[in-house]
Hints:
four-stranded antiparallel beta sheet, two-stranded antiparallel ribbon, 3 helices
Amino acid sequence: MKHIYEVIDKPLFTEKGMFLKENENKILLQVNKDANKHEIKKAVEEIFKVKVEKVSTINEPRKKKKFGRFEGFAAQKKKAIITLKKGEKLDLIEGI
């Protein structure tokens, strides 16, 4: 098991993420590609002091990239959609 601060990489501020936050009380995070749902739930609850109802994960495949005349692959990413329990609120932009 990883340390809780190694599980969460960063919050994702996208249009979809903002829509989920405002309308459905969900948070979009980029997480470590080796983390599982139980580790993600525990890390979010301990770091942000909120109650988590559900965790959904999305594995994005590596994308082919060109770096000048060289070809390679961008890193694989894993996203987590965290559903908070009713009455819980978390605002990552304004702070905790």
